[in-house]
Amino acid sequence: MSRWLVCAINALLLILTLFAPAGCSQAPAGNPAVVATTAPSPASNTSYPALTGAPTASEAYPAPGATYPAPPGAGTIEPEATVVPDAVIEVFIGKHRLEAEVVATPEKRSIGLMFREALPEDRGMLFVFAGPYTGTFWMRNTRIPLSIAFISQERRILNIEDMQPFDEVTQHAPRGAAFYALEVNQGWFAARGIRPGDEVVFELPPGLVIR
């Protein structure tokens, strides 16, 4: 082997010896050392931020599309337990009297009797619509067993439906064009012999805004 080749090999070995440690063990100047990490195991208590976008199964609306979806944020932050009604009026069906909270705007109708713990015996909620209503009601976030009477523009009962607490599947619809709906404790109508065709007598307050 020539003397020139031996010198070249020795020079190459010297260069490799000097530069190898700098490339493998020292972080670049001015930056923290890089530390290898591993993903936490499924059993760890590490929490992750909730995903946003598509609703979860519990937030999806049942088919057909619900007319009264929960307000934005329901499921994480409950709305007020009691809606401030537009008015409280007397309602008469035959000789039977009750007091009804009137809700006449979409925002108040969308909450209705949600989150109530109880409803007094002769108390109800009267939903007032701006035009003929042919949608449906459901019982999302509603703890009280209810009966609902759908009422025509002539203020006659079209049909009465019983509704079960927290039932998000069953859709309760009027059998005709309803301009009003009256919710009471479940069985209130039946206990008094009230049935479809009966007249519902009430006076809405002057100046009531109906939307």
Account of the 3D structure:
This protein is of the alpha+beta class and 211 residues long. It has a domain at 87-202: Jelly Rolls. It contains 3 helices and 7 strands. It has helices at 3-24, 106-111, 188-191, and strands spanning 87-93, 96-103, 123-133, 146-151, 157-163, 178-185, 201-202. A 7-stranded mixed β-sheet has the order 5-4-6-3-2-1-7. The longest helix is centred in the first third of the chain and has 22 residues, at 3-24. It is globular, with a radius of gyration of 34 Å.
Would you spell out the secondary-structure blueprint of this structure?
Layout: H1 3-24, E1 87-93, E2 96-103, H2 106-111, E3 123-133, E4 146-151, E5 157-163, E6 178-185, H3 188-191, E7 201-202
Parallel strand pairs: 2-3
Antiparallel strand pairs: 1-2, 1-7, 3-6, 4-5, 4-6
- Portion in beta strands: 15-25%
Number of helices: 3
Q: Which CATH C-level class of the domain at 87-202 is it? A: Mainly Beta
Which structural class best describes the helix and strand composition? Answer: alpha+beta
The CATH architecture of the domain at 87-202 can be given as: Sandwich
Give the strand order, joined by hyphens, for the main sheet: 5-4-6-3-2-1-7
Radius of gyration: 34 Å
In total, the number of strands is 7
Spans of at least 5 consecutive residues with low confidence: 14-77
Largest sheet: 7 strands, mixed
The H-and-E topology, N to C, reads as: HEEHEEEEHE
CATH-defined topology of the domain at 87-202: Jelly Rolls
Overall form: globular
The mean pLDDT is: 73
